[in-house]
Amino acid sequence: MDAGNLSVVSEFVLLGLCHSWTMQVLLLLMFFMLYLIIVFGNIAIIILIITDPHLHSPMYFLLANLSFVDMWLCSVTTPKMITDFVRENKTISFSGCMCQVLFVHFFGGGEMVLLVVMAYDRYVAICKPLHYSTIMNLQKCVGLVATSWTIGFAHAMSQMAVIVQLPFCGPREIDSFFCDIPLVIKLACIDSYNLGILMNADSGVPAMTCFIVLLISYTYILLTVRQSSKAGTSRALSTCTAHITVVVLFFGPCIFIYVWPLSITWVDKFLAVFYSVITPLLNPAIYTLRNKEIKTAIKRFRSYYIYPKGNI
Question: Roughly how many angstroms between the first and final C-alpha of the chain, as a whole number?
């Protein structure tokens, strides 16, 4: 075929989460509220960490970056999903679909590495407390965050380099609410079985590697905390527990989607919603509700900026 590398299909059809109009209205209201909470919640955490000098530490610098990534990861797919609930023709252009693929893997890959960086920060703080300020200085933190963004970008581009060259000339229905690589590959006008395995491995292997490294790291940290009798043990344990919860919630769905050999449509949709919407929602809640310093900072913010007369 002369135009083997050209995409004849100019747009794709997203089948969404369901077909019932009543259910779509309910989902519209629910996801619209969740999206507002995610955006304003993560923005609030970023502003709080920037404005409060007591939170100017490596751990909260990394947390602010996690909130920033979560906010954008959710924004790649959720606004489109919300608007599609009220549209009869749920289409997305070819370029729009490729952009979703790019940014989902850019922010998702960056978050995977960022969670590893946060585990490293906790390892240094708990296992090498006397050298913490030297090892986790501002320059090191900025470098680690930049590394996470770079790896995320490289991972996304490795996916895009293959996807954009595929010929799409026939089926154009994607049984999901956004363009995910396994579903897009199935629509290509080639035998995509081996390519699908390769592309899934490109996402699944890094996810599994980061997840295993994180499990080993936090296991070592928790063993160190258990053997310690210092006053900060309970605080360290609480912080690590919050981190482990976030790691499991984020990596669980990703690993299942890209590593699990079986494909069950409703399960894949649920997990896609979980890591693109629910995880960015839970991250701020987990880190704020379990963190005394964040709670104290919120009180200071309210007294200084919202009710300043109370300080007089």
Answer: 78
The string of pLDDT tens digits covering residues 37-67 is: 999 989 989 999 998 888 888 989 999 999 9
The Cα-based distances of 61 to 45, 66, 159, 251 in angstroms read 11, 9, 29, 22
H or E stretch covering 127: helix 94-127
Residues 6+ apart with CB under 8 A from 258: 182, 200, 203, 204, 207
Per-residue pLDDT reduced to its tens digit, 237-284: 667 777 788 888 888 887 777 766 556 677 778 888 888 888 888 877
Asked whether 74 and 35 are in contact (CB, 8 A), the reply is yes
∠ Cα 289 294 300 (to 5°)? 125
Say if CB 152 and CB 115 are below 8 A apart.
no
In angstroms, rounded to a whole number, what is the distance separating the alpha carbons of residues 125 and 117?
12
Query: Cα(128)–Cα(111) distance, rounded to whole angstroms?
Result: 25
Report whether 203 contacts 158 (CB < 8 A). Answer: no
3-class DSSP state of 263: coil
Residue with token string 């790896």: 151
pTM equals 0.86
C-alpha distances in Å from residue 25, one per residue of 28, 29, 74, 205: 5, 6, 20, 38
159 vs 101: CA distance, rounded Å: 8
Res. 228 pLDDT band, cuts 50 70 90: low
What is the structure's pLDDT at 120? 92
**Cβ contacts of 105 within 8 Å, gap of 6 or more:** 152, 155, 156, 159, 181, 203
For 11, the 3-state DSSP assignment is strand
CB atoms within 10 A of CB 99: 15
Report DSSP state, residue 232: T
Residue 246 CA to residue 249 CA, distance in Å, equals 5
What is the C-alpha to C-alpha distance for residues 18 and 248, in angstroms, rounded to an integer?
Answer: 27
